[in-house]
Design a protein that fits this description.
InterPro entries: GntR_C, TF_FadR/GntR_C, Tscrpt_reg_HTH_GntR, WH-like_DNA-bd_sf, WH_DNA-bd_sf. With 227 residues, this protein is mainly alpha-helical. The chain contains eleven helices and two strands. It starts with a helix and ends with a helix.
Length: 227
């Protein structure tokens, strides 16, 4: 482990132990370096690294603070990496969605307020009878985002939102090239909505699995054809 890694680990431990809490300002650089037994240059590199993943917020002329540490903020670093992924890696993202999203949907069937479930119906109705593929995909992302939030688990919701948003290009591509996708997607959304409304957690999870697996299988077939 490098000296910089030691510094990162030391700061992380201070946060984990509750010595530094969200919003707290870090001690002055020379004081913290002396306390941790590190060089100031190593500490500076550690702070820079932790600021890149939004654990720390360096405010010029003010100091360095622990961020809110909200899951959505910390997931930004994952989003940055995902933006560089190619189609075969998007497939892995869809695989991850197929594992994670049904769990969020199952939890939402139990915890999501009925008013929010009814709001999902209004969201689907807002598309009208003949939405474009782009409108459908945007609606789809919002549909799944709300369900993930309905799980009551902020970390799970952030994961779903990150994975869902970063597969938008693949879903748009599918909508433009595969016949009947708009109707099929809306039908699957309506089925998930109905299961949520009836509080059928297992059925809602199974429907979510089938829904995500459809995009995944299409991409698998497409990649095979391209090779």
């Amino acid at each position: 482990m490098s000296v910089t890694d030691d510094a990162i680990e030391a700061i992380k431990q201070m946060i984990v132990d509750g010595e530094l809490r969200p919003g707290d300002r870090l001690p002055r650089e020379p004081d913290l370096a002396e306390r941790l037994g590190l060089s100031r240059s190593s500490l500076r590199e550690a702070v820079r690294a932790l600021s890149l993943i939004h654990v720390l917020d360096v405010r010029r002329g003010d100091g360095t603070y622990v961020t809110s540490l909200e899951p959505s903020l910390l997931m930004d670093a994952m989003s940055f990496v995902v933006d560089f992924h190619r189609d075969d890696t998007v497939l892995q993202l869809l695989e991850a969605r197929r594992v994670i999203e049904p769990a969020a949907t199952e939890m939402a069937a139990v915890k999501m307020p009925m008013a929010d479930i009814e709001g999902l119906g209004e969201l689907l109705d807002s598309l009208g009878e003949a939405p474009s593929v782009e409108e459908l995909v945007e609606n789809d992302i919002e549909f799944h985002r709300r369900i993930a939030l309905g799980s009551g688990n902020a970390v799970l919701a952030s994961l779903v939102e990150t994975l869902s948003g970063r597969t938008q290009r693949a879903r748009t591509w599918r909508g433009l090239t595969q016949e009947g996708v708009v109707e099929r997607t809306l039908g699957e959304h309506r089925a998930i909505l109905a299961a949520l409304g009836r509080r059928q957690a297992g059925i809602a999870a199974a429907l979510a699995t089938v829904h995500v697996a459809g995009v995944e299988q299409w991409l698998r077939d497409t990649l095979v054809d391209k090779r």
